[in-house]
From TrEMBL:
InterPro entries named among the record's database cross-references: RNA_pol_sigma70_r4_t2 (IPR013249), RNA_pol_sigma_r3/r4-like (IPR013324), WH-like_DNA-bd_sf (IPR036388)
Name the UniProt record assigns to this protein: RNA polymerase sigma factor
Domain of life per record: Bacteria
Span of domain RNA polymerase sigma factor 70 region 4 type: 105-155
Length: 175
């Protein structure tokens, strides 16, 4: 089969085909579909270690394709990368290393969010996962997930643009 023949297959069908044949062209198709979204997500969650974590994840899939147990491959990928990032974050907390990165105001604001809010925001906005899927990944209720998502957006807006007075909070000018 040619590369074009694989384009119409679902991720799960491609993974099954890769398990059976171990053809690198099939793996490459899966990799190509998901590499950019995973990279954008992980680089914003953990800039210093994202390349290593992604390399390990793809190597693991290449050597031993996963059993999805009814999950979508895309969801499985984000669950795995999420676990790896959390483990790396726990290791980094013990090391307490400070790394200086030149960042945009938005990236700085995203990095200042609590990790759960940052994770929910990035999974939804960057990775285009539904909030229901994000709630499943984080193992929280959909209602709580929505609250964290909206709170994260508000905090980023405040960190980037500052506190904007609301029309009902404008100070009265005394003459």
């Amino acid at each position: 089969m040619s590369r074009k023949a694989f384009q119409h297959l679902t991720d799960e069908a491609l993974l099954d085909h890769y398990k059976e044949t171990r053809k690198t062209v099939v793996f490459h198709q899966l990799y190509t579909r998901h590499k950019d979204a995973l990279y954008r997500y992980s680089i914003q969650m953990a800039p210093a270690s994202s390349a290593k974590i992604l390399q390990e994840l793809w190597q693991k899939i290449l050597e031993n394709p996963p059993q999805l147990h009814g999950r979508l491959f895309r969801n499985w990928l984000f669950i795995q990368i999420n676990k790896a990032l959390r483990e790396q974050q726990a290791l980094n907390e013990h090391k307490s290393t400070a790394v200086d990165y030149r960042k945009s105001a938005v990236l700085v604001a995203i990095q200042k969010l609590p990790s759960l809010q940052r994770n929910i925001l990035l999974l939804h906005m960057e990775c285009k996962l539904s909030l229901a899927t994000v709630a499943d990944i984080e193992q929280i209720s959909l209602k709580k997930c929505r609250e964290y998502y909206h709170r994260a957006k508000e905090q980023i807006e405040t960190l980037v643009y500052g506190v904007q007075p609301k029309p009902w909070q404008v100070e009265v000018i005394e003459e």
